[in-house]
Each structure stands twice: as structure tokens, then as C-alpha cells.
Design a protein that fits this description.
The protein has four helices and no strands. The radius of gyration is 25 Å and the shape is flat. The protein is mainly α. The termini are far apart. The protein has a domain of 44 residues. α2 packs antiparallel against α3.
Length: 127
Amino acid sequence: MNVANEAVAVHGPHGGHGTHGAGHGATHKQYVIGFLLALVMTAVPFALVMSHAVAGTPLVIAGFAVAQIVVHVVYFLHVNGSPEQRWNLTALLYTAVVVCIIIGGSLWIMHHLDVNMMPGMMHGRVH
């Protein structure tokens, strides 16, 4: 084995030191914690809906949905604030902003159309 092949074998093709993926992979414990949190964040809103619990149930469900998105991003996609994940986090935040603009704009347009719709048009009459 020559010096170049030995360097690649010891340090890997990207200059790493024998611990390939040590900083990137999650432990089994992290996956179990993420799974249990996702399970709870699914079961609680389901129980609220099935028991007809509270008048504010849609807001509670929305809160649990956002929390579950965060759990999935952190525990399963492994996106965090570390320097290695900066571009992934930036892309994720950009995507979230675009989705919020699209959904918010769509709801705004639908509300505007609903408010300004002529009363005779609501029954499907065509003249």
C-alpha cells in the first residue's frame, strides 16, 4: 500500500478520522425518544377529538402539529443549529416561510372572495 492509499484508508476520502458518521448519526435512544414523542403528539389530539373535549380543540391540534413537525425535524432529520447543519436549517426555514406565505395568501384570497361574493351567486343560479 502506498502513502496515498494509506492516507485514504486511515482518514477516509474526505479527510475524516476513522469514525465515519460519528457526528452525523443518531443513537438508538434518540430514535426511541423521537418515536415516543411523535406517538404522544398523535395520541393526545386524537383523544381530544374522539372525546369531544374542548371548544378550542382545533388550536390545540394545530399546536401539537407544529410541535410534531419540530420533533420530526430534530429527532429524525437531525437538523439542528450546529455549523454543519446551517445550510439545511436555512433551507428548512426558507421552505417554511414560503409555505406559510402560500397558505396564508390562499386563505386571505378565499376569505376576501367569501366576503365580497354576491348573495344571489351562493345558490348556484345562472342567469
